[in-house]
């Protein structure tokens, strides 16, 4: 049974007549994708930790003996948590924990500041139907999540913390957590672009150059070179864009429809992206269809225009350590919801054509978000 912890400060007592309905999380469930502040970073997307084990500790407050001992046990055995084999995410709802010195220890140990109870409600640590500040009881437990973001095991909080950490220490390598490697649901399509077209696109980039490519954070474009380093050239010539769309229509769209039952109707973004070893070109794990301006995207299409570079491979952390380097002219196609990364280019330059494609349903989402942004 999960440990039930009465009234943690600064929470107030809950009326006896209020119904408390918990939504428990159990082994085999998909762990929810959650964005929450941690002590070292605001709006941290916890699902980007896929690809390694994650241990969530719902200690909720260090003010009492049990919560304090749980956090101390993790700190004492911090060698278990390095963001490669396993990451620890401690969850607190007590704002006073910051004054007590609670802070991330990177790599590997983060503390989620769940003052709005978002994580707790999604995972069954707080009632889903009680307003903020009204709960008189929380459930406390440990949740072990596998590298594919499925719950592996739930431990009662009454267990000895070291027994839980011993279970973490005994885990196999992340890419073999089930005894086999899991294939990523991607397409690798040959000869989508012919050599002359690849050369033409590279020549355009080299003649006209590219601009720094940023990321969207809180609805604003920002540059974060630790997260992403790429330069893009936007293609403007309408006849060229029609040629590129034609290649996608004939050589990519039928494969998407065959395997994923979606008919591509729209192409977004005609750019040549450049990942250069001189810049340390790379892209940290991310998803391409987060809420807002990118929510309509369905599939990413990545056509390598050359292959005379080292590094710059695409990996899918939820599905293991394997990375992919398509030959020149080949397309790597994958759902935008999959977590993916581009490894650092260590020699040479990787040029790639990088559009997104979507359908009529995606268009409705895009138009709704554009209208919402215009009205704001």
Task: Break the fold down into its secondary structure elements and pairings.
Layout: E1 3-6, E2 35-38, E3 41-45, E4 53-60, H1 65-76, E5 86-92, H2 96-99, E6 109-113, H3 118-123, E7 137-145, E8 151-156, H4 161-169, E9 187-189, H5 195-208, E10 211-212, E11 215-217, E12 220-222, E13 228-229, E14 231-234, H6 238-251, H7 253-260, E15 266-268, E16 271-276, E17 282-286, E18 299-304, E19 310-311, E20 314-315, E21 323-324, E22 331-335, E23 340-342, E24 345-347, E25 349-353, E26 356-358, H8 360-375
Parallel strand pairs: 4-5, 5-6
Antiparallel strand pairs: 1-7, 2-3, 4-7, 7-8, 9-22, 10-14, 11-12, 13-17, 14-16, 15-26, 16-25, 17-23, 18-22, 18-25, 18-26, 19-24, 20-21, 20-23
What does this entry show, briefly?
Helix content is 22%, strand content 29%. It contains eight helices and 26 strands.
Describe this structure in words.
It is built from eight helices and 26 strands. By secondary structure, it is α+β, with helices and mostly antiparallel strands. Strands 9, 10, 14, 15, 16, 18, 22, 25 and 26 form a nine-stranded antiparallel β-sheet that branches. A hairpin with a 2-residue loop joins strand 2 (35-38) and strand 3. The two termini are 46 Å apart.
Shape by Cα distribution: elongated
Instruction: Identify the CATH homologous superfamily of the largest domain.
Output: q2cbj1_9rhob like domain
What gyration radius follows from the Cα positions, in whole Å?
Answer: 23 Å
Strand content: 25-35%
Under CATH, the topology of the largest domain is which? Jelly Rolls
End-to-end span in angstroms? 46 Å
The CATH architecture of the largest domain: Sandwich
- Largest sheet: number of strands, sense, barrel closure: 9 strands, antiparallel
Say what oligomer this is: single chain
CATH level 1 class label of the largest domain:
Mainly Beta
Q: Provide the residue-averaged pLDDT.
A: 92
Total of domains? 2
Total number of helical segments? Answer: 8
Given helix and strand content, the structural type is alpha+beta
């Amino acid at each position: 049974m999960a440990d039930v912890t009465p009234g943690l400060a600064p929470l107030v007592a809950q009326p006896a007549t209020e119904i408390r309905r918990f939504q428990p999380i159990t082994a085999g469930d998909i762990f929810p994708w959650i964005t929450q502040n941690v002590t070292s970073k605001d709006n941290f997307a916890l699902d980007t930790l896929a690809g390694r084990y994650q241990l969530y500790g719902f200690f909720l407050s260090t003010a009492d003996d049990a919560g304090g001992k749980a956090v101390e046990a993790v700190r004492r055995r911090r060698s278990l948590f390095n963001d490669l084999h396993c990451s620890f995410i401690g969850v607190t709802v007590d704002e006073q924990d910051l004054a007590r010195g609670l802070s991330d220890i990177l790599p590997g140990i983060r503390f989620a500041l769940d003052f709005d109870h978002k994580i707790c409600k999604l995972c069954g640590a707080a009632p889903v139907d009680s307003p903020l500040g009204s709960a008189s009881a929380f459930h406390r437990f440990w949740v072990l999540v596998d590298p594919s973001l499925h719950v592996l095991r739930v431990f009662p909080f009454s267990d000895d913390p070291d027994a839980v950490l011993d279970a973490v220490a005994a885990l196999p390598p992340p890419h073999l957590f089930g005894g086999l490697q899991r294939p990523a649901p991607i397409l690798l399509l040959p000869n989508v672009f012919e050599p002359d077209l690849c050369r033409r696109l590279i020549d355009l980039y080299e003649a006209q150059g590219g601009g720094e490519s940023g990321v969207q954070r809180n609805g604003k474009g920002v540059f974060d070179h630790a997260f992403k380093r790429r330069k893009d050239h936007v293609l403007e010539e309408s006849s060229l864009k029609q040629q590129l769309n034609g290649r996608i229509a004939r050589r990519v769209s039928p494969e998407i429809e065959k395997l994923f039952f979606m008919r591509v109707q729209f192409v977004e973004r005609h750019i040549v992206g450049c990942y250069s070893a001189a810049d340390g070109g790379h892209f940290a794990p991310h998803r391409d269809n987060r809420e807002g301006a990118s929510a309509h995207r369905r599939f990413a299409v990545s056509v390598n225009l050359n292959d005379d570079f080292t590094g710059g491979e695409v990996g899918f952390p939820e599905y293991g350590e394997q990375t992919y380097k398509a030959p020149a002219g080949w397309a790597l196609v994958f759902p935008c919801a999959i977590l993916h990364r581009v490894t650092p280019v260590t020699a040479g330059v990787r040029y790639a054509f990088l559009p997104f494609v979507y359908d009529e349903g995606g268009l409705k989402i895009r138009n709704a978000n554009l209208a919402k942004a215009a009205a704001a």
